[in-house]
């Protein structure tokens, strides 16, 4: 089971998937969440 910053202690994904791509994890930035694949951005 993968264990890194993307997964919680239960092995579940701890980040949001991109609502546009569906298979990509959104990167956490200080002021936004961003998809590196399609460019989708959610501002905080």
UniProtKB/TrEMBL annotation:
Its cofactor is Zn(2+). One of its GO terms (biological process) is translation. Pfam families: Ribosomal_S27. InterPro entries: Ribosomal_eS31, Ribosomal_eS31_arc, Ribosomal_zn-bd. The keyword Ribonucleoprotein applies. GO terms for molecular function: structural constituent of ribosome; zinc ion binding. One of its GO terms (cellular component) is ribosome. A zinc finger (C4-type) spans 18-38. The keyword Nucleotidyltransferase does not apply. Residues 3-41 form the Small ribosomal subunit protein eS31 domain. Binds 1 zinc ion per subunit. Keywords: Metal-binding, Ribonucleoprotein, Ribosomal protein, Zinc, Zinc-finger. Zn(2+) binds at residues 18, 21, 35, 38. Part of the 30S ribosomal subunit. Belongs to the eukaryotic ribosomal protein eS31 family. NCBIfam families: PRK00432.1. This is Small ribosomal subunit protein eS31. The gene is rps27ae.
């Amino acid at each position: 089971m993968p264990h890194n910053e993307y997964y919680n202690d239960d092995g579940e994904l701890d980040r949001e998937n991109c609502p546009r791509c569906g298979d990509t994890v959104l990167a956490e930035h200080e002021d936004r969440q961003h998809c590196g694949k399609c460019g989708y951005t959610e501002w905080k």
